[in-house]
Amino acid sequence: MTTLNRRTVLTGAAAVGAATLTSTLPSPTQAAAPLSGQQAPGWYRYKVGSIEVTVATDGVNRFKFPDSFVANRNRQQVNAALAGAYLQPAPDMIAIPYNPCAVNTGARLVVIDTGTGEANFARSKGAAGQFQANLKASGIDRNQVDVVIISHIHGDHINGLLTADNKPAFPKAEIMVPAPEWKFFIDDGELSRQTSDRMKGVFAGFRRVFDALGRKVTQYDAGKEIVPGITSVATHGHTPGHMSHIVASGNSKVYIQADVTNLPIFVRNPDWHLMFDQDAKMAEATRRKVYDMLVAEKMMVQGFHYPFPALAHIEKSGSGYREIPVPWSPVL
After folding, report:
1. Which of 213, 196, 114 has its CA nearest to residue 154?
2. Distance of alpha carbon 89 from alpha carbon 82, whole angstroms
3. Shortest CA distance to 268 belongs to which of 141, 137, 84, 145?
4. Who has the most CB within 10 Å: 128, 174, 187, 222?
5. Is 278 helix (H, G, I), strand (E, B) or coil?
């Protein structure tokens, strides 16, 4: 016969508790799961009045930036700015995102800029060239796109006009390019005056893309409603005919800025001269004019090179500005 006392009761309870705990803990094999190794599709949608804007990322380019990346600042200052904005993957490295947009006005389906192109997906091992796949994942069929608006002719904005086999990526779309941009880059005389390999490459890329399209484009000017709900704005400097676009519906607006700034470090430091700015002083003046307007009008900005989904409010900060990301919304 077992005699119950305080010691045997406590000992028994401890043993039962330990057995129960052991039996409910998962074994290492039960907890194991394979790593996916993949990112979710990169698209985000929001409303501007009755208009739907879909940001479909083209991915990110990571590289060691040259000493000339900011012409009027040294490498140490650039490293400090990138680190201070939490935008640096590693010292001396930079990560530049690409964020083209689709704008559905209800009457027209419009793409604004096209990313680095499908062929770049294989070259970059999937890091970039994602726009078409993400556009499809968002439910948008490129064959239904009515208009493609190009802000300027740098490769990360025009290469996505072509598929990987150099066919039109938007076969039914009207292609619209800024008239002053077209005039400059179509000019063989301007090409003959170029001395840098980078600019020669820009001219060559322009011809490669638009020759493949038979140079069938519609040129547009600044200050025009080029599609109902989308107005072009002259923002020259980054390139001679660089344009931005205001999408408006009712009392709502968003400023799709293309390359008025690159990464947000140029929002915070508008006097920094990016190596890709063709006329650095004009580009700086344009930045300040645009960002003063964004602050005054409390207008949202869609930044092509901001971190995805690249939508922000702007406020003044010292001698520059500060971007405040718009909170993600689960509903439209």
Report:
1. 114
2. 9
3. 84
4. 128
5. coil
